[in-house]
Task: structure prediction
Amino acid sequence: MKVVIFDMDGTLLDSKKDITISVNYIRKLHYSLPPLSEEFIVEAINMEVRNLPFLFYGTEVYQEKDRDVFEIHYAMQCTQNPYLYDGVLDTLQKLVASGIKMSVATNAPTPFALRMLEHLKVADMFDVIIGADKVKVSKPNPEMIDRILNYYNFDKKIHKAWVVGDSSKDMLSAKNAGIDSMFATWGFSPNGKYDKLIHMPKEILDIVL
Result:
């Protein structure tokens, strides 16, 4: 058995426009702050160590009003502009046709992930879609990865698994779970620590198949 666990944002799909719109909506509505750029928001999200409420809203912790309004706004916004990266759909189809097991581990909340993947008509290709709301600690902690591997009754002695992601958090989650990783350079982060570096989705096929 072979298992490929994908990160979502910046790996399968580009969601930065909608994330940026929703963050800037809160900044303007609650704090009268000017908009942040997509580049700044994406870089902040992918930092290994960061305080997102401070970077986004200037607060030390997420205020309940910010979280509540963001979730309502982003639930509507998240399906407006996302798109699969070039080559992702073809790669997913070939992996499915080859009997490869596929799941998604994302630090986004599961309901948003499901909405976006269903909107892009790829949700049914994955056995497990798990977000940060389903675990005690999100990536780089291995809990998400471990839960997916347990779902498959994964045995490291006879099975093979990879995490495909675009941030060092993805790579560390794989390392912490004791499996291999592939760093996707087409995503939100241009660099990170990795086992294998890939520049196009189809390179996944060469490694896995």
